[in-house]
Amino acid sequence: MEKFTFDANCVYYRQLNEQIRAAVAGGCTDFELTNVRGQRYIADALDGDLRFMIHGVPGQDLGAFMRGPKIRVEGNAQDGVGNTMDDGEIVIDGLAGDVLGYAMRGGRIMVRGDVGYRVGIHMKAYKEKIPVVVIGGKAGDFLGEYMAGGAIVLLGMFTGKPDAPIAGRSLGTGMHGGVIYVRGGVPLTQLGPHLKAENADDEDLRTLTTHVTAFADSFGLDAKEILSVPFVRVKPFSHRPYGNLYVAA
Amino acid sequence: MKAPLRYYDYEKDISGCGIFGVIDKKRNLIKGDMPIAAMTCMHDRGNGLGGGFAAYGIYPELADLYAFHVMSSSQSALDRAEEMIKAHFEVHESQPMPTRKTLAIKNPPLMWRYFLSVKESRPRWKSLGEEDYVVATLMDINKTSGGAYVFSSGKNMGAFKGVGFPEDIAEFFRLEEYAGYIWTGHNRFPTNTPGWWGGAHPFTLLNWSIVHNGEISSYGINRRYLCMHDYECTLMTDTEVVAYLLDLLIRKHGLSKRMASWVFAPPFWDEIARMNEQDKETFTALRMVYGPAMLNGPFAILVGDGHSLMGLNDRIKLRPLLVAEHGDRVFMSSEESAVRDVCPELDKVWMPKAGEPVIVELEA
């Protein structure tokens, strides 16, 4: 089936998404969208082996609930990328906004540059479903807040904010599962309560190598160089740090 | 509370307000089409219950006069407001606001515009400074005229707002006919307060204007604090307090914009504890003295004053705000798409840190 190419210039988001859905129903698997400017809900809840190339700035909730599609954005993305995404991959060659990967439950999101606040909030994992977010730049506050599973890899390398700390304050607040890897370490004052930062071990390095290599391949970068600096692993102190929160003393 | 039967049939509107601002640092004029197009791009952030714009540099021939924009639900209230205006000011021009009939805007209030200077011999408030006198008069009109509201009172600037989507409000006020060097725009999705004409953004006082996405949970204490300083809230929307707080803190108390931002979005106590002694003292004092002026709750605000455009988020960034630069122009917006829509090529794009203002001053 031929590729679905579409000029989204001044097309309302409902019309755009209706056309995409009609094409998917017709068996189309490759999509190229140009002049995207803020259209919401692109590729939301789509299922299966589909590929999207997006030129421009897609709107809120890009790839929300989706299960399988691979999306590449040539440009920056806004808020809510990969909201509750189940499987697939989103690659953003630019910046991304707030709450990226919110309640994500599978698949992988890679952002070349900086991301906003509350990225990876409520991420969770179950059996073979392990969501991963790789961030090439720096992150705002509350990265991995309430995180229950999966992995966030924060590189801090490709950033427009040279003076900012690699992650904002309250990193991993309320976190009770999953892991956040930070390249080169993170000031302890940025961490939320009940968390420990340790050096990544060999098993961590295997995980990191897999995802950093994919990240480097996506953006034409050198994985060796990214991995040449030690990583720190942020995790909760105990298995259930909030287990007694609502239990009468 | 139980969900309604067949709850899945209810289509939920998921949204928040949308804000956009642009400043040309060299005072080159920007036509109204640009902010209108940017706000149109963010149409779905509002629900048609409020839209508005503020523009600076629009009345160059009358730049020394206070431009009062007045809306009124009745002719009698407008007459009362006019009587009060005439008693307190020299009226240099008085005219209906230029508007056009549009299908989207139903039952607009009466809209009138005055260009004013302060009377040599004042009927009252003789000891007040000129700007305090203007503030006192317009607060009195808003409170006692019984339905007329002065919703814009600065010089060489104006607010245009009402119930409708911003692009509809712009069409109603013929905003494409104006040109200014600073513009802000707002698309409203009212949550806690009524969607009425006076409650649309921007909120203004003298040259201050503010558009806001979020909600000011501290409205009650802010309002009572302002009341002690002779600012009375009459517009039934939380954002109104921010316009008056700006006037109080910056114009009257002489705080810098940076300092006022620390009052609105102060550092956390644990951050203050890690500061050096001098900063610790400063920030503790600021929180003690101006506690009732702190803004609690989520906000992204854009503030104009004729010389600058300022963007500020609450300190945990519960609302989006993006800044972009192109040449002499700086844009601030809820969404990048709106900026790209009116300026596809940008030199720099970033999202400011929570609680850190971005202040862009004119260079000409």
Key terms for this structure?
heterodimer; A: 249 residues; alpha/beta; 11-stranded mixed beta sheet; 11 strands; 27% strand; B: alpha+beta; 7-stranded antiparallel beta sheet
User: Which structural class fits the helix and strand makeup of chain B?
Assistant: alpha+beta
Please identify the oligomeric state: heterodimer
Give the biggest beta sheet of chain B. Answer: 7 strands, antiparallel
Instruction: Tell me the span between the first and last alpha carbons of chain B.
Output: 58 Å
**What's the order of the H and E elements of chain B?**
EEHEEHEEHEEHEEEEHHHHHEEEEHEE
Give the strand order of the largest sheet of chain A, numbering strands 1, 2, ... along the chain.
1-2-3-4-5-6-7-8-9-11-10
Tell me what portion of residues of chain A adopts beta-strand conformation: 25-35%
Structural class of chain A, please?
Answer: alpha/beta
Task: Give a count of the beta strands of chain B, DSSP E runs of length 2 or more.
Answer: 18
Largest sheet of chain A: 11 strands, mixed
Radius of gyration of CA atoms of chain A, rounded to a whole number? 18 Å
For the secondary structure, the number of strands of chain A is: 11
Specify the helix fraction band of chain A.
10-25%
Q: Summarize model confidence as the mean pLDDT of chain A.
A: 96
Average pLDDT, all residues of chain B: 95
Q: What is the helical fraction of chain B, as a range of percent? A: 25-40%
Strand/helix succession of chain A: EHEEEEEEEEEHHE
Measured by residues with Cβ under 8 Å of the partner chain's Cβ, the largest interface is:
A-B, 26 and 22 residues
Uncertain spans of chain A: none
Proportion of residues in extended strands of chain B: 25-35%
Layout of strands and helices, then pairs:
The complex is a heterodimer of chains A (249) and B (364).
Chain A: E1 4-7, H1 13-25, E2 30-37, E3 51-57, E4 67-74, E5 87-92, E6 108-111, E7 132-135, E8 148-154, E9 177-183, E10 195-199, H2 202-219, H3 223-227, E11 231-236
Parallel strand pairs in A: 1-2, 2-3, 3-4, 4-5, 5-6, 6-7, 7-8, 8-9
Antiparallel strand pairs in A: 9-11, 10-11
Chain B: E1 18-24, E2 30-31, H1 33-41, E3 51-56, E4 66-72, H2 75-88, E5 89-96, E6 110-118, H3 130-144, E7 148-152, E8 157-162, H4 166-172, E9 179-180, E10 182-187, E11 203-205, E12 208-214, H5 219-228, H6 240-252, H7 257-264, H8 269-273, H9 277-289, E13 299-304, E14 308-313, E15 322-326, E16 329-333, H10 336-342, E17 348-350, E18 358-361
Helix pairs in contact in B: 1-10, 2-3, 5-6
